[in-house]
Amino acid sequence: MRHNGSxxxxxxxxxxxxxxxxxSVGAARADDDSGLFGLYAGxxxxxxxxxxxxxxxxxxxxxxxxxxxVGIRPIDxxxxxxxxxxxxxxYGGVNYADTDGVGVSALGFLPIPLVDVYxxxxxxxxxxxxxxxxQPFHRSGADLSYGVGAGxxxxxxxARVEYQRFDLSIASTMSLTLFGVSWTFL
Length: 186
What we know:
Blueprint: H1 5-28, E1 38-52, E2 60-75, E3 78-92, E4 95-109, E5 116-131, E6 137-154, E7 157-166, E8 171-184
Antiparallel strand pairs: 1-2, 1-8, 2-3, 3-4, 4-5, 5-6, 6-7, 7-8
C-alpha cells in the first residue's frame, strides 16, 4: 500500500481548520444548552467496489475500504464532514490501481426519533495511481460523492451504516458500503 503524504497533509489541515471553526462556534454558543451542537470523529470499514472503464484500464475489485471522518453537527437536521477514504487496490492482470481521497460533505437528517436517517452530498479529491508495465497513469481531481445512511447514538457513542458512490471520470463504479462508529465530543 502506498503512502500519500499530500493527501494526509490535506486531511490534517482540514481537521485543524474544522477544529478552529468548532472552537469559535462553540465559544459563541457557550450559553446554549440545547444539546444539538456536536463535534464528532469516527471510522468506518466495509466492502469497496471499483470498476475502471474498460477503454481506459480493465481493472476491477471487491475489496475492503475504509473511511476516517471528523464532523460538526450544529443542529439536528444538518452536519458537515471532512473525511479520508481509501478503496484498497484494484487488479487487472499485471496492472493495479490504488485510489484514495480527501473530501468534504454536507449531511441532511430526517427528523425521525431514535434513528438518524441521512443523505450525503459532497466533493472528494480522489487520487488514482495505476501501475502498469505498459502505460502507468496518475489521476487526481475533485469528484462528486453522494450517499445515504442510518445510525443510532447511545450517549456519545454512535454507530452507523452507509452507502456512498463517487463519480470518477475514469471509472464506471466507485462505491463503498461502510459500517462504522463515532464519538461525539461536545
